[in-house]
């Protein structure tokens, strides 16, 4: 019995993600929330003959009902990039959206596990954390920036150069954050590829990754559900290193230093983060990349934190 709310369910990610979660046999309730078009999406999805119940929640006055009683909240609400933009260019719009949604989570489902997809993830996760802290319900084990797409891409890109490998079986750790040089796949010989930029360019103004992201978010959500149901699952995510200070020692030693948040492999449990999985030693090349990522991440995190402080939640 697992109830999931998707906030931004009528969007490019939200729609295929809703479809994939409707097909997940462990999901019993799917609450779809958006500011537009969600009644149609929910009606459409609800006709799929799996056993879960789908409900539609349009507009802010119905946000509380969308969140009440849910175990997991996934947030793909917000604007996507156009060519020439960085993820940080989305900050001005998406920061306020994530802040509002986090306030409602604090009020209606403060113990839910929350996965933030909205960019810039490096800043929107600290924003959500600050809102939850201000309302006295923050638990670093239960808040995640969804970085599964970076790991999905890394394994697929390796298959492009090694066609004999099974891309779905490859497990390549990706650490740091979720933007430009903060995404550090631990593949010391790899040529850098900027997967998000490739999709933004190819879509030529029509948005950023939606289908591969929906797949990655469905995988993330399924991992959380399997952990709630007692399975041993490791999934990458951008989390607070306070969620497991002991496990984080190894990550800090690799170059994360005193950063509060970092993308790491996470062993999930019933309560969210059970353990940060140590990353095996890195090469000098990778260590340098982690140093570059950490400097940028510090700026992104501080920007998110000061946004919430200025707003006096
Ligand atoms: N973490 C990742 O790996 C990753 C990958 C791809 C995209 N993204 C990000 O995900 C976000 C969504 O991308 P998309 O392509 O689905 O965009 P989209 O514009 O297609 O959909 C966004 C949806 O959010 C809704 N929305 C806007 N404000 C809202 C609010 N206050 N409450 C509820 N819903 C609201 C919109 O109505 C729309 O339906 C973007 O910020 C994008 O950059 C992240
Ligand atoms: O690149 C983007 O803007 C969307 C997302 O962060 C991605 O990695 O595809």
Automatic annotation (TrEMBL):
Stored NCBIfam families: MDH_euk_gproteo
Cellular component terms (Gene Ontology): cytoplasm
Gene3D superfamilies with a match to the protein in the record: Lactate dehydrogenase/glycoside hydrolase, family 4, C-terminal (3.90.110.10), NAD(P)-binding Rossmann-like Domain (3.40.50.720)
Protein name: malate dehydrogenase
GO molecular function: L-malate dehydrogenase (NAD+) activity
GO aspect biological process, one term: tricarboxylic acid cycle
Key words of the record: NAD, Oxidoreductase, Tricarboxylic acid cycle
Enzyme Commission number(s) from the entry: 1.1.1.37
Binding sites annotated in the UniProt record for substrate: 81, 87, 119, 153
Assembly description: Homodimer.
Domain Lactate/malate dehydrogenase N-terminal as annotated: residue spans: 3-145
UniProt organism field: Linderina pennispora
Binding site for NAD(+): 8-14, 34, 94, 117-119, 213
Active-site residues, as the UniProt record annotates them: 178
Pfam family, one: Ldh_1_C
Residue span, Lactate/malate dehydrogenase C-terminal domain: 193-307
CDD domains (alphabetical): MDH_glyoxysomal_mitochondrial
InterPro entries reported for this sequence: L-lactate/malate_DH, Lactate/malate_DH_C, Lactate/malate_DH_N, Lactate_DH/Glyco_Ohase_4_C, Malate_DH_type1, NAD(P)-bd_dom_sf
Reaction catalysed by this enzyme: (S)-malate + NAD(+) = oxaloacetate + NADH + H(+)
Record-stated family: Belongs to the LDH/MDH superfamily. MDH type 1 family.
Top-rank taxon, per record: Eukaryota
